[in-house]
């Protein structure tokens, strides 16, 4: 039985807990959580999450401890758990910008740390989580953490020094994609298309396009070419996107995302 605890049960902590609870990992896991707003943990009772009275209690009861709090809270919370961290504890940080050395500095010099960058689709078992293995954790411990995220989506292992750059790609990108989707649905509303049908048609286009990228074997440039009939509608639309510098806007969004991660970095 793996004991898995959460310090913070907000958007992401709850999403991972619900992901674990809905996966085949649940029978082998005992789940704990602490959040100062107790109602957030109470709302997870249906997932079998046991409520703790403090962050330190989560660490005392759990081998794998997820730090699912805002980066700005680490300086306040880590000293509160330091005494409870043992050679067995594996601290899993999902916070943007936070590094392993900083966590050790505020807990124990020997603390085992895994850095992870998940995303909210994990709630539906469709997550994408980047993980970095720190030398402090064994292969077996890292495999357990990877398995937890893997129970609710795909995972990829990257170098610890790339954990800030990856945020734009999977951590924040869902918001960018939702905004893109909003543009289409706003257009559908403007021209009077039925809301539900437009939503279903666009969302399936999003899913289908994603599958074409992963499964068709064609490059993205070739996939764009396949849709773009000479003198047709797509090229007319693409002209506008190029003129509006959509690719530059995306690069700028990713750059700003990374820059912010460095600002939050500790
Ligand atoms: N929301 C997202 O899509 C993603 C978020 N993250 C990371 O996850 C972390 C949490 O983000 P969200 O869940 O979005 O924020 P959130 O604000 O929804 O959740 C944070 C939770 O921590 C709780 N909290 C505050 N002080 C606490 C304390 N002393 N002890 C325990 N809990 C405390 C808050 O009440 C709140 O429920 C952040 O570090 C963020 O960088 C990472 C990937 C994606
Ligand atoms: O916005 C944030 O800072 C967090 C990290 C990635 C997604 N949400």
UniProtKB/TrEMBL annotation:
KW Coiled coil (keyword) present: no
SUPFAM superfamilies: 6-phosphogluconate dehydrogenase C-terminal domain-like, NAD(P)-binding Rossmann-fold domains
Record-annotated Pyrroline-5-carboxylate reductase dimerisation domain positions: 161-264
Protein origin, superkingdom: Bacteria
Reaction catalysed by this enzyme: L-proline + NAD(+) = (S)-1-pyrroline-5-carboxylate + NADH + 2 H(+); L-proline + NADP(+) = (S)-1-pyrroline-5-carboxylate + NADPH + 2 H(+)
Main location as per UniProt: cytoplasm
Described function: Catalyzes the reduction of 1-pyrroline-5-carboxylate (PCA) to L-proline.
Protein name: Pyrroline-5-carboxylate reductase
Organism of derivation: Ruminococcus callidus ATCC 27760
């Amino acid at each position: 039985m793996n004991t898995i605890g959460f310090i913070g049960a907000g958007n992401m902590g709850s999403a991972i807990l619900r992901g674990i609870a809905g996966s085949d990992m649940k029978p082998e896991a005992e789940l704990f959580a602490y959040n100062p707003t107790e109602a957030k943990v109470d709302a997870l009772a249906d997932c079998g999450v046991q409520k703790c009275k403090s962050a330190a209690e989560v660490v005392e009861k759990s081998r794998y401890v997820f730090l699912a709090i805002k980066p700005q809270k680490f300086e306040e919370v880590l000293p509160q758990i330091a005494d409870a961290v043992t050679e067995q504890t594996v601290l899993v940080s999902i916070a943007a910008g936070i590094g392993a050395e900083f966590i050790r500095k505020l807990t124990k010099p020997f603390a085992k740390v895994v850095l992870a960058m998940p995303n909210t689709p994990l709630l539906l078992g469709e997550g994408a989580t980047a993980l970095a293995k720190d030398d402090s954790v064994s292969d077996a411990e890292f495999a357990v953490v990877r398995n937890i995220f893997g129970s609710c989506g795909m995972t990829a292992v990257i170098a610890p020094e790339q954990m800030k750059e990856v945020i734009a790609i999977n951590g924040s990108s869902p918001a960018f994609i939702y905004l893109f989707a909003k543009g289409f649905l706003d257009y559908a509303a403007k021209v009077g298309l039925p809301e539900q049908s437009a939503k279903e048609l666009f969302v399936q286009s999003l899913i289908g396009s994603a599958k074409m990228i992963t499964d068709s074997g064609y490059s993205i440039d070739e996939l764009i070419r396949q849709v773009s009939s000479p003198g047709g509608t797509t090229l007319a639309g693409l002209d506008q996107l190029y003129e509006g510098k959509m690719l530059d806007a995306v690069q700028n969004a990713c750059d700003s995302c990374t820059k912010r991660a460095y600002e939050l970095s500790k």
